[in-house]
Amino acid sequence: MEYRGKNVTISEGCRIGENVVLEDNVYIDYNCIIRDNVTIKEGTTIGANCIIGEYTADWFAEHKSENAPLTIGKNSIIRSGSIIYSGNQIGDNFQTGHQVTIREKSIIGNNVSVGTLSDIQGNCHIGSYVRMHSNVHIGQLSQVDSFTWIYPYVVLTNDPTPPSDRFVGVHVKPFAVVATGALVMPGIEIGQDSLVAAGAIVTKNVDDYAVVAGNPGKKISDVRNIKSHFSDESVYPWREHFENYMPWLGKTFGEWYTGLSDEEKKDLNIENIAFE
Amino acid sequence: MEYRGKNVTISEGCRIGENVVLEDNVYIDYNCIIRDNVTIKEGTTIGANCIIGEYTADWFAEHKSENAPLTIGKNSIIRSGSIIYSGNQIGDNFQTGHQVTIREKSIIGNNVSVGTLSDIQGNCHIGSYVRMHSNVHIGQLSQVDSFTWIYPYVVLTNDPTPPSDRFVGVHVKPFAVVATGALVMPGIEIGQDSLVAAGAIVTKNVDDYAVVAGNPGKKISDVRNIKSHFSDESVYPWREHFENYMPWLGKTFGEWYTGLSDEEKKDLNIENIAFE
Amino acid sequence: MEYRGKNVTISEGCRIGENVVLEDNVYIDYNCIIRDNVTIKEGTTIGANCIIGEYTADWFAEHKSENAPLTIGKNSIIRSGSIIYSGNQIGDNFQTGHQVTIREKSIIGNNVSVGTLSDIQGNCHIGSYVRMHSNVHIGQLSQVDSFTWIYPYVVLTNDPTPPSDRFVGVHVKPFAVVATGALVMPGIEIGQDSLVAAGAIVTKNVDDYAVVAGNPGKKISDVRNIKSHFSDESVYPWREHFENYMPWLGKTFGEWYTGLSDEEKKDLNIENIAFE
Question: What confidence category does residue A276 fall into, taking pLDDT thresholds of 50, 70 and 90?
Fold first, then answer.
């Protein structure tokens, strides 16, 4: 099925494959390549020079293959130079920086942001309201839960004894923050509301609310002990102190949470958290 | 105003916006996108597939906005695949590697070089004769003074308690060297003529002439104690021993410095340094 | 000489220079730029938006120069957005990820793989069956021997006292593994069959079979002591336990090695290794 909604813009130099669905108000900037079987939902903008629905390895044998479907949700912004593979399912309000690569077979929730030069390696499960900054590397099989923050040059690894072909993904739990340049070893669980400090090499599971730093990473504190850089106020759990980009914008986290249905909590994978 | 100087080359596949000024001997290689309100000064080369004057976030709401002016100084070389936002002011003899991203609202002096895959996040102030190698990440609000060297995978961070919306930039002072993979915490001052060793996690201000290494970074020496890898000679302060790319090429640093006017020293932000 | 073999595909939007040889079954996807004096051997695929035979610095003075020859071996796959300079010699079955940069004057053997966003800086000597993952930075003058593994965000540096103009390359010996985020200091030798742990800052030569970790990196074990994450089995030397992508696929390393001629061993730079 090929479909063009109302007010779709396809700029000069674009190459559009077969079975491409472009819903209302989709805007595609110069020189984009949209491969076969791509659905771009309403109001989404694709920046210049992007490749959407990029071929997986199968294609290279004979330069043809049935491209697995790719869906990009509504009101998303894919910035210029990004490459998104076929075979991903991406929610609404997705945003990327430039030159981002998203490999195949990942599921990405709503309101996720992935910064410039970041590389999601495929077979990942990313929740909603996940904020990844520039140049992060999310290894295959990673599970990054909703309401998590991943800062520049963080790597989530997956091979316990490289090289091997038995990968175990990292699991970043809700509200965790992984700061710049931290490396997380395969199979590690980063606990809910924890903070991995910049440059930490994380070799053991991180407790809920723990602060882990160093090489090898050690628990050095509890996030609830951290004061603001500017005052004597506590600033963690961050959800009590920060609302930008978050669904509780304009109210407190608690007010928002109280209003959620059980199904909504489950969708966000936060149904089992006893918030303090 | 649209203007084309003498001997301007615009190669096939380029898309040129409105109010674009291309001075004499500007050369634009294949498939470049030059957005509105861009001025490229004489003798500058733009490599293939670059996007110059890229849209800021405002544009995405309605796919139109008044693009803030961008100026790239004369005799610059922007290598292929780079993306430079609107709203920057960039000096002469600027060079980039490939796939560089320079976000909006930065001021960049003369004779600055930024390596392949580097990412300058915007709202930065970069001096002159700054040499950034590949894949550096310069966070918003960073101040990188003249005659500094930033090596691969260095990150200058800006958020003391992530996530927050109160950023404090790093300040790298003249003649400092930040070696490969060093991470510098928000608000840190890297002292004049200091050396941050490879892989250091810098959590405290770095004294002038100090050598800082480790995680967390500690002062381990004075740069004046460092000998060459090849002989018993001192090699720091580097300005006394290295002249490539520098304005004192062919003479000593001292000879060059003595010949500067007060205004020239002030422009380079080195008017208050008591050189030993 | 310009030559087109049988069944060559040049997709829309490509720009092909002079003296370009495209052998049988070469496939070039959309919008590629192939500069002068490039030879692409049979069965190789060039993904979209690649620049092959990119200009070196000489070109920028007058926007012309004699492009040094570039050869890419047969059955290679260059993924979209990659930039490969003129003046390289690259073997068969070469593979890159996306947005890879390979600078000039390197020699790369057969069956080498270089991941997304990796940056090989030029004047390097890369053996055969080398597997580099995403986002590695291989400094000028590096020697990376056959059967080595380089994981994401590894940097091989080359300047002992930055800034200088006297580089000394790193040497990674056969069967060594350099794990994620390790930084290797200039001139270091990484011993045969050794394992550099994730995040290690390597400041001293690494012994054969050693495990080195930490900042600064210290020998913490012998690879032969490492057990599998999943069982009590030894997993190193990895060549005895892993065969994917390797020429001994379907047999043991020993069986394969025994069948090699002296010349074949020499080509792989493993003629002097006494395998245990």
Answer: low
Confirm or reject contact between B168 and chain A (CB < 8 A). Answer: yes
CB-nearest to B134 from C63, C99, C119 is C119
Express each pLDDT in B12-70 by its tens digit. 999 999 999 999 999 999 999 999 999 999 999 999 999 999 999 999 999 998 999 99
Q: Among residues 228-247 of chain C, which lie with CB inside 8 Å of chain B? A: none
Distance, first Cα to last Cα, chain A: 50
User: Distance (Å, rounded) from C-alpha B90 to C-alpha B76?
Assistant: 10
Q: Could you tell me how many residues make up chain C?
A: 276
Please report the pLDDT score of residue A265 as a whole number: 96
Sign for the CA dihedral angle at C217, C221, C227, C232 comes to negative
Asked if residue C155 lies in contact with residue B181, where contact means CB atoms within 8 angstroms, the answer is yes
DSSP conformational letter for A221: E
Contact (Cβ atoms closer than 8 angstroms) between residue B14 and residue B34 = yes
- Best residue of A25, A98, A215 to probe chain B, by most B CBs closer than 10 Å: A98
Token output for C93: 């079955």
The answer to whether A86 faces chain C, any CB pair under 8 Å, is no
d(C-alpha A143, C-alpha A155), whole Å: 13
Residue A103 has pLDDT above 70, yes or no: yes
DSSP class of A258 = H
Burial degree of A88 (CB within 10 A; 0-12, 13-18, 19+): buried
> Does B74 reach chain C within 8 Å, measured CB to CB?
no
Q: Mind telling me how many Å the CA of C210 is from chain A's nearest CA?
A: 14
The reported pLDDT for the residue numbered B138 is: 98
- Taking the mean position of all CA atoms in its chain, how far away is CA B164? 26
Q: CB distance B81–C99 less than 8 Å?
A: yes
Partners of residue B181 in chain C, C-beta under 8 Å: 155, 181, 183, 201
What does residue B184 show for φ and ψ, rounded to 5 degrees? -115, 125
Phi, psi of A165, deg, nearest 5:
-125, 25
All residues of chain A having their beta carbon less than 8 Å from the beta carbon of residue B166 are 229-230
Q: What is the pTM of this model?
A: 0.98
Chain B CB within 8 Å of residue A151 CB:
yes
Other CB atoms within 10 Å distance of the CB of residue C60: 16
The contacts of residue C249 (CB under 8 Å, 6+ apart) are C243
Per-residue pLDDT tens digits for A61-80: 999 989 999 999 999 999 99
Phi, psi for residue C258 in degrees, rounded to 5: -60, -30
User: Would you tell me which residues 15-44 of chain C have a C-beta closer than 8 angstroms to some C-beta of chain B?
Assistant: 15, 31, 33
Q: How far is A201 from chain C (nearest CA, A)?
A: 7
Rounded Cα distance between C53 and B265, Å, is 42
Which chain A residue has its CA at the smallest distance from C76's CA? Answer: A60
Name chain A contacts of B83, Cβ cutoff 8 Å. 80-81, 98-99
Q: Supply the ipTM of this predicted assembly.
A: 0.97
Taking the Cβ of residue A161 and every Cβ of chain C, the question of whether any pair is shorter than 8 Å is answered with yes
Encoding tokens for residue B225?
């104690």
Collect all residues with Cβ–Cβ distance below 8 Å to A207 and sequence separation of at least 6: A191, A194, A219
CB B48 within 8 A of CB C14: no
CB C152 within 8 A of CB C134: yes
Q: Residue-wise pLDDT tens for chain C (276 aa)? A: 799 999 999 999 999 999 999 999 999 999 999 999 999 999 999 999 999 999 999 999 999 989 999 999 999 999 999 999 999 999 999 999 999 999 999 999 999 999 999 999 999 999 999 999 999 999 999 999 999 999 999 999 999 999 999 999 999 999 999 999 999 999 999 999 999 999 999 999 999 999 999 999 999 999 999 999 999 999 999 999 999 999 999 999 999 999 999 999 999 999 988 876
- The one-character DSSP state at B238 is G
